[in-house]
Specification:
- By secondary structure, the protein is mainly beta.
- The chain contains 7 helices and 30 strands.
Amino acid sequence: MKKSLVALSIVAGLSASAQAAVYQLEELSTLASAKHHYIVDANNNGEVIGQARGLYNLPIDVSYIDFTESAITRAYDNWEKREFDAIDKEITFTLDDIAAGDLNADALTFMLNFLANANGDENWQKLADVVAVNFTPSPAVEQVLLDQPSTDYDGYTRSVSNLYNAISEDGVRVGSGSAPYEKIEFTPQGEDEPETFFVRDYRSRGVVVSPSGEVRTLQPISDLYGGTSTASDIVQRPDGGYYVVGSSSIGVPADRQEDYDDRCDGEDEPIAVCVWRLENVASGNTLNGMYDRRAVIWTLDADLNTVETKELGLGLVPKEDDDNAFVSMALAVNSQGIAVGYSHVRKYDNEDRISTLPVLFKDGEVIELLDQKDDWFDGKAVAINDEGIITGFGSKRIEGRATTKFFYHDINTGQTVFPSDYFVSSSSVARAINANGVIIGEGEVDVVNSTSRRREGFIYSVGDDKIANINDLLPCYDIDGESNYPYNFAEATAIDDDGIIYGVATKTKEKLNARGEVEVDDSGKVLYESVATPVKLSPIAGGEIEECPPEAADTYERQSGSLGWLALLTLPLLALRRRFK
């Protein structure tokens, strides 16, 4: 297997005197309406997609709120004490201001915090601050997936997360999202006054987006009580059509059906609210979920019409008395229709214990990729190339803590390899692999702190002994030749066949409030913060690793600034990261 230019550059750089960086970093265009931006995929044509988080000016619907209600007056009093009195500052807004629709940045922040804490209450407005983004061609633009214009305020409801997941070589994109919430009035049985409820039609739908922006949904195999489907990856077939993989609900477990029959009678609350509550039970344990879900491959024709929907199987055989909601999920597929992902499986030494492990879906079989006897208890396979090389991660306890380790598996030989990463107890995850067997991802770099470790992007070529920290392949200084390099490359999410890497770097910028306005302290001094920035790393011909002097180098940190917020990048979006084929 040949190695890419990047892999060869790294090898050369590690063994030679440093004269120039290996990569040139370029910031991509971002939305002015959001704080953080994350790349999830790109293709060999340089088309890049991702997500933006931290939207400014989210809409607050005050029309239904009784601002004398104890829940909000108590929250306001606590907010005043914690955010203003504690620093001897007078609060800048009142509840009357909010009721009148006059929300300054502080008032908006308060309401967003209040609604976030009330997210599990069906009587309060639902907001989401995640949108899909086309980063190229520049300037970046939002892609609306399933949201709808609001009937209560200008613009979209902003009640639904729009998630891009993958892009094909010819620019067809896939993603997922939930139905937008609708505000309705409902009078519970025995009551005289109606109550406000926020309801939606379904939890999730996979979507396919044409290059021109037309959105089509992928229907689940079973849409009982709304059902659910997700689309994780897309690849072109040799005949001009497409394979799309993800998951679909196939029904409801017997226990959940009993719960529905007992609770969802439409008397005390809308049936949609009752279903919403049952769906939310799965937030901590998928075995308690509302739906049985299976990995699925959709076959689309060249016009994006679905011509076949096929289940890919489950890594165990349910027993007659099993009441669990078993799940399998396909996260990636190659042009041969071979898919990988994860599935519930039984423990090898105890059939009553269930784990979620990386699997290969091939020829009607669900094949585990990790040996449970080596103490792997969790994991996912996240990418596969056309040469049959799979990459992903597994979890086991190392030095007393749950730790993830990235791996690659060769379908041709059946061999699974866990390369060396940053250090023994460092958690590492792979995100993507290109046609040349170059894997990228990120791993923990803090040795001392075992609870919240900073992560930095890595690159690895199949067959090598260990990974390379991508930050070590960037320049030591900014363009002035004196200031420390302003970027810390935190997460590598896509790599093309020419070795161009896409991902997320953190950079210090002026701090903006919930209205998108620059924040200052009491003396008028501008405040700064670290934000997630989408970047492109292009290999430099003949480039080599720079040997940074001590004042510009740090064993694990090339710039100052905490990355504690970077936890947002990991588990919630991990299943949604893509790769090149």
